[in-house]
Amino acid sequence: MNKTENQMLIIFGASGDLTARKLIPAIFDLAKGGHLPENFVVLGASRSDWTDDEFRKNVVTESKHLANHVDGPTKKVMQDFCDRLFYHELSSDQDSDYSPLKKRIDALDNEYGTGGNFIFYLSTPPSAYEPIAKSLYEQGLHAETNGWRRLIVEKPFGYSLKTAKALNQALQQYFKEPQIFRIDHYLGKETVQNLLVTRFANSIFEPLWNRNYIHHVEITNAESGGVEKRGGYYDKSGALRDMFQSHLLQIVAFIIMEPPLNANAEEIRNEKLKALKSLRIMNDEETLHKNTIRAQYISSIIDGKKVKGYREEENVDPNSTTETFAALKFFVDNWRWADVPFYVRTAKRMPTKVTEVVIHFKTPHHQIFKDSGLQNKDNKLIIRIQPDEGILIKFGVKVPGQGFKVERANLDFYYSSLVENNIMEAYERLLLDAMQGDATLYARADEVEAAWEFVDPILNYWATSDAKVYGYSAGVWGPKNADDLIDGLGMWRNPSKNLADDAGFCVIC
Ligand SMILES: NC(=O)C1=CN([C@@H]2O[C@H](COP(=O)(O)OP(=O)(O)OC[C@H]3O[C@@H](n4cnc5c(N)ncnc54)[C@H](OP(=O)(O)O)[C@@H]3O)[C@@H](O)[C@H]2O)C=CC1
Ligand SMILES: O=C1O[C@H](COP(=O)(O)O)[C@@H](O)[C@H](O)[C@H]1O
């Protein structure tokens, strides 16, 4: 494990939602778990006219997680933690001089012995990423003369291939690529990382992990919530940009990539890049029409309460065509995956919050138990990313008694059953990695561009064609038409709320 050196974390966008809800709680958990170095401070920076104390009060009030520690056994940890939080007010002029900020950073560095090691976290609207990087550069805060410097950049990373390339070029003018950490919080999820371990630390899966044995791959990313308070951002983004281009394509890359030489950041990222480049780009109207579906949730009654439709949400255009549901069928053009269809869907306002990957294996090529009564003949490997992290294998077993009746049984593993199952929250894990200089779970510039290359033609098709925007009632598994994508396979697997509820052959009941 790498060492966590003394350092300072400077968060731009310190008065924002992400800082209070995710970043500060993650750093607090690192403090509670004893993962922070001895000399460590956080300097929040944004344009709000706040004092150190106001920043501290804001994060405690806005984060339920922190509020729980104000009293009780962790009160002391909380107090020590708050003493390490500071705030600096930036000028509201975007091109302003950062020399007062530099003075503050130098003063804190001297007083708290943070060793000249600084992480700059960009948690602002994306339009501020480049001006902030430029201002840091102008103050020499990029240069690793007396310590190291890292820049963490939040998503969305670009709006299209063109803008992502422009942002990469802009940031690389001021920071070197190894200093830039593009965060994708799904890579911080334990079960996403476990995809690599399942594949490459076992000899029983990898020999089957190809077109000879796998019939198709299905990925579902469902949220029960709507767009909440982020209507303004979401309406310009949509499900494909918000979830698919980043999080889901990272998961796809872990599923399809070739084994890396070792687990080093560059080796893993090289293989992920090759994987993303092998996605077959859909660029003719007929293919796009056949293989993509978008939809929006419409008003509905859930648990006796009326739920707003997407177009009625705050800051959403009442005539919006932005998708809250996206489903795609696509192929991977390489030796391993030729002709294996991938079905991926992501949506808001689904019946439950769940993310899972299902590997559907082919049926045995010669069936000797034809009259066995088994309904779904394929073996399935279900990798549950969230909320109840685990893995389940479905296979056929003989029903006791005369003849050869075959039923489906489950072999399962749940993270919750581990004695030590303190799963780090994604931001906690990723922040710790960045603090230790480990970029394995951060996206490289070329990977992000390769992902946009695949997504761009779909977005362009949706923007310029008359591709239908279907409606689905909030609380159902999307529009019926999404089943047309999954041709000849019945329908999408509608996941149970808990993996444990996934019916297997039940001997006792
Ligand atoms: N919230 C979430 O759940 C998620 C957010 N993200 C990403 O994180 C980033 C932040 O999101 P979120 O916190 O929700 O957004 P908010 O709008 O809540 O916060 C952004 C903050 O940035 C500050 N800000 C604006 N311009 C500047 C500037 N030039 N310099 C310094 N600070 C500035 C604003 O504060 P002030 O006016 O005081 O300067 C504001 O508080 C976005 O890129 C978003 O896409 C990603 C995943 C999830
Ligand atoms: O990045 C985002 O992710 C969240 C979903 O994250 P999860 O960890 O709760 O699955 C999503 O709600 C949001 O729209 C998106 O920007």
TrEMBL record:
Glucose-6-phosphate dehydrogenase NAD-binding domain segment(s): 10-194
EC number: 1.1.1.49
Active site location: 247 (proton acceptor)
Keywords of the record: Carbohydrate metabolism, Glucose metabolism, NADP, Oxidoreductase
Keyword Oxidoreductase applies: yes
One term under GO cellular component: cytosol
Top-rank taxon: Bacteria
Pathway, per record: Carbohydrate degradation; pentose phosphate pathway; D-ribulose 5-phosphate from D-glucose 6-phosphate (oxidative stage): step 1/3
Function: Catalyzes the oxidation of glucose 6-phosphate to 6-phosphogluconolactone.
Protein name as catalogued: Glucose-6-phosphate 1-dehydrogenase
